[in-house]
Write a structure and sequence with these properties.
With about 140 residues, the protein is α+β, with helices and mostly antiparallel strands. The chain has four helices and four strands, in the order βαββαβαα. The protein starts with 11 loop residues before the first strand and ends with a helix.
Length: about 140
């Protein structure tokens, strides 16, 4: 399957980062971030995962190198984030998070519910990626 915006035979880039919210992330703020991320990512053929736990964000971005670089640049400049730390920055032959537009807490879910759902989603991912998620859980 060819994903639009991905050069044939071209490498994809994956970036996994964590950051801290500059203000306690209310659900409305998180929903706005998710909506904007999905919109921007669809335009740039970027897929991945967004996970919010308390005041911490963990996000995986995958897509064409330039698109991922520009997306990360926007995130670093976003005043809602601070202490952006890139944990993984690598080339991929194929996407690990495929057609995910982003994953997030559903209304009424507890931290344990979200943690369990994300653990299920990442269970089949490579050990290095899986380890970062486990450390994020603390």
């Amino acid at each position: 399957m060819v994903i639009p915006g991905t050069p044939l035979g071209g490498l994809l880039r994956q970036v996994l980062y964590v950051s801290t919210s500059t203000a306690p992330p209310r659900q409305a703020v998180v929903d706005a971030i998710l909506q904007q991320s999905r919109h921007n990512n669809a335009l740039e053929s970027v897929t991945g995962l967004l996970w919010v736990r308390r005041d911490r964000f963990l996000q995986v971005l995958e897509g064409p190198d330039e698109a991922v670089r520009l997306t990360l640049d926007r995130i670093v400049k976003d005043p809602r984030h601070r202490d952006v730390e890139v944990l993984v920055d690598r080339d991929l032959d194929q996407r690990e998070f495929g057609s995910w537009s982003m994953a997030l807490r559903h209304s009424g879910e507890t931290d344990d519910d979200v943690d369990g759902r994300v653990r299920t989603l990442i269970a089949s991912k490579p050990d290095a990626t899986h380890a970062h998620f486990e450390r994020f859980l603390g």
